[in-house]
Amino acid sequence: MEHDQPTSQSIDQAKALIIAPALSRMIIDSTSPGRKSFLDIGTGDASFVQFLISQLEKEGIRISDITLVDIDTAVLPAQILRVAASKATVRLLQFPPERHFGEGTSSSENSIDIANMQMVAHQIANDAELSLIFGRLFLALRSEGVFFLTGLDPKYIEYLYQSQSPKFTYSNTLPSGTLVGTYHLDETETRPLYCRPLANLLAMLIGLGFDIKEISHPSLAPLAQIKPRYGALQAAGIPMFQIIKVAKGNRFISFSEGIVARTTPESSGYMFVEFMDGDSVIVPDIFVAPKERLVLLEVTLPDKRTCLTQWAIPETGAAETRSRVFISKK
């Protein structure tokens, strides 16, 4: 059996040789020339942002406004930030450790042309947290904006699980079908992994107003010569990564957000909610307490039903964000 030779962290190689070229090409093909705004979630060392800017410039696409979001923005190299700042207005937003992302993006509403979230979704355990990020992104995008979601393909994780590969340590499978375990980036570094079925991700995105445009599986050929296991995956037809392209659909109905002051029961299971700022809404029976943040997003589904997603964000990060979805009858 042919063994891989030790190299730098394999996921970094894969991102540089496989994801970056494929994702850049998808973004270029989806974007007309001119000045654009770009939002990147899970920026890391910003190497992809730097690569993307250089590729877009060759096509006459200028990123004039950049928002970089990560749990720790201190890891962003000063040199890359200087390069980006020389070409565009740059904003840094930091996830709190509990990932209550989004309050800082309120000023980005309807202002983003291109959004990118790379290798982040499968690190988030809580579906409510993930859907809240997607909901915030929907609101941040312009009417013609596009969002690219890149992650490990569920078929690849299933393959690792079934073959008992040392790359993935299985823990359990949730009722939703999500595979839970630990992904081994290399011999010393690991990440928790929550691999959701593709159908679940697509349903979540559609329920928040997105239109699914494309699902791509980049070729592993560039890495096959470096690590034989990639060649074996390619030959077996097992994709390692998936890139989901979605657009902001024209199905938005309403959005509300605020800190809850008090709730009062209404008839037929509805609830009157008054916010601290004096605004109020009437919604289906909710599960939110005073001083919690309530977020509401309502859209029309492709089949013309309406979908209302409620998120309750605790006052402190000790408790998890919770969500409920209400879908009307046809």
Features of this protein?
disordered N terminus; 2 domains; 330 residues; 8 helices; 6-stranded antiparallel β-sheet; 7-stranded mixed β-sheet; alpha+beta; Rossmann fold; globular
Protein described:
With 330 residues, the chain is of the alpha+beta class. It has 2 domains: 10-248, Rossmann fold (3-Layer(aba) Sandwich), CATH 3.40.50.150; 252-327. Helices cover 27% and strands 37% of the residues. It is built from 8 helices and 16 strands. It has helices at 10-29, 47-58, 78-87, 127-140, 154-162, 198-207, 221-224, 228-236, and strands spanning 34-41, 61-70, 89-94, 112-118, 141-152, 168-173, 179-184, 190-195, 210-216, 241-248, 252-265, 270-275, 280-284, 293-300, 306-313, 322-327. The strands form 3 sheets. A 7-stranded mixed β-sheet has the order 3-2-1-4-5-10-9, sandwiched between helices. A 6-stranded antiparallel β-sheet has the order 13-12-11-14-15-16, covered by helices on one side. A hairpin with a 5-residue loop joins strand 7 (179-184) and strand 8 (190-195). The longest helix is centred in the first third of the chain and has 20 residues, at 10-29. The radius of gyration is 21 Å and the shape is globular.
Give the overall shape: globular
Structural class: alpha+beta
Order of helices and strands: HEHEHEEHEHEEEHEHHEEEEEEE
Q: How far do the termini sit from each other?
A: 57 Å
What's the total number of strands? 16
| CATH A-level architecture of the largest domain | 3-Layer(aba) Sandwich
Structural domains: how many: 2
Top-tier CATH class of the largest domain: Alpha Beta
Read across the widest sheet, the strand sequence of neighbours is 3-2-1-4-5-10-9
Largest sheet: 7 strands, mixed
